[in-house]
Every structure is written in C-alpha cells, then in structure tokens.
C-alpha cells in the first residue's frame, strides 16, 4: 500500500471519528443516544467474541454470561465494597476471565456442537442465577443505585459523557483486536 493510500485512510478515519464526536451535539433525543451507547457496549462484547471465534475457530454461545458476570461484579464492588470505577472494572474483567478458565479448562477436549452446548449451558446458568438469586443481584429487579463513575476527577453522569467513555473504550478495543 502506497504512502498516499495510507495517508488517505488515516485522514478518512480521523474525519469519521470527528463526525462521530459530534453525534451527541447533533442528536436532540436522549433515547437515540442511549441506543448508540448500548450499541457501543455490545460492540465491545462482540469484539471479544470475534477474537475467540475468528482467531481460534471456537464457537462460544456463552458470551452474554461472561458479560453478565463482569457487569454484576463491577456494580456490586462499586456499591458494596466502595471500590472506585477503574479498580472495579479490572476486578470484573478478572472475574469474567476466571469464569472463562473455569469453563474453558474442562471444555478443552470438546469441539463443535459439544463446546457450543457447554457454553450455552454456562450462559443459561448465569442467567438463571442472576434472575433468581435475590439477596445479592436482586433478581429480576436488578441493581439500582450504582455509583457514577469518574475519570480523572470528572464525573460521568449524562448519556453524552457515557457516549464518549464508551467510544474511547470501543476505539481501544478495536486497536487491541487489530494487533
């Protein structure tokens, strides 16, 4: 690829990122911004699934279970242990990774439909535990009152703030996945 082509691609990427940065300023409906935030979060989940399926060829249907473990662990650590946002996120990633090891090690000999069934089973177990275990995750009522995260002393409270945080996380995830 020539120098001009690389420069053109980088310019187009920067232009697209600049346009995306203006989206919260242009949208007048918070619902649409919320939907974009959810799309960004789920895109991060899919990047992880793409790394697993695309590079290793393994099929996992339990991705939502790992996502749920991470989100609930981070929320509970922030609420009950008073952990700040970033340490809670790191602990949540470690908890989801530990679940991956707990499922992955016994499933190493499985492939094809058997691995799919094992990961579906994990996802379903996580869903049922979170739905029916009311003392900790509060079951179907969910967790309320999660503290607002902060970044460098700046509170992330609005949908616009979350848009930029999720966008930065998504950009970081894409860069890591491309390496």
Count of folded domains: 2
Radius of gyration: 19 Å
Largest sheet, described in full?
2 strands, antiparallel
Low-confidence regions:
none
Structure in words:
This protein has helices at 3-26, 30-56, 63-80, 85-104, 113-132, 159-178; strands spanning 150-151, 154-155. It is mainly alpha-helical. The protein folds into two domains: 1-51 and 160-179, no CATH class; 58-147, no CATH class. It has a two-stranded antiparallel sheet with strand order 1-2. Strand 1 and strand 2 (154-155) form a beta hairpin. The radius of gyration is 19 Å and the shape is globular.
Short description:
The protein is an all-alpha fold.
Q: Helices, strands, pairings?
A:
Elements (H helix, E strand, L loop, with lengths): L2 H24 L3 H27 L6 H18 L4 H20 L8 H20 L17 E2 L2 E2 L3 H20 L1
Antiparallel strand pairs: 1-2
What key phrases describe this protein's structure?
mainly alpha, globular, two-stranded antiparallel ribbon, 179 residues, 6 helices
């Amino acid at each position: 690829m020539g120098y001009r082509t690389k420069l053109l691609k980088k310019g187009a990427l920067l232009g697209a990122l600049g346009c995306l940065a203006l989206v919260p300023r242009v949208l007048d409906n918070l619902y649409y911004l919320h939907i974009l935030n959810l799309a960004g979060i789920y895109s991060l989940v899919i990047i992880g699934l793409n790394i697993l399926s695309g590079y290793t060829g393994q099929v996992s249907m339990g991705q939502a279970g790992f996502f749920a473990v991470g989100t609930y662990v981070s929320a509970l650590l922030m609420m009950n242990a008073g952990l700040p946002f970033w340490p809670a996120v790191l602990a949540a990633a470690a908890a989801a990774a530990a679940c991956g090891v707990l499922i992955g090690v016994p499933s190493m000999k499985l492939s094809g439909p058997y691995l799919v069934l094992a990961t579906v089973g994990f996802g379903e177990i996580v869903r049922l535990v979170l739905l029916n275990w009311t003392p900790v995750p509060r079951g179907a009522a969910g967790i309320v009152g999660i503290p607002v995260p902060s970044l460098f002393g700046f509170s992330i409270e609005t949908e616009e703030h979350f848009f930029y945080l999720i966008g930065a996380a998504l950009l970081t995830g894409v860069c890591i996945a491309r390496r």
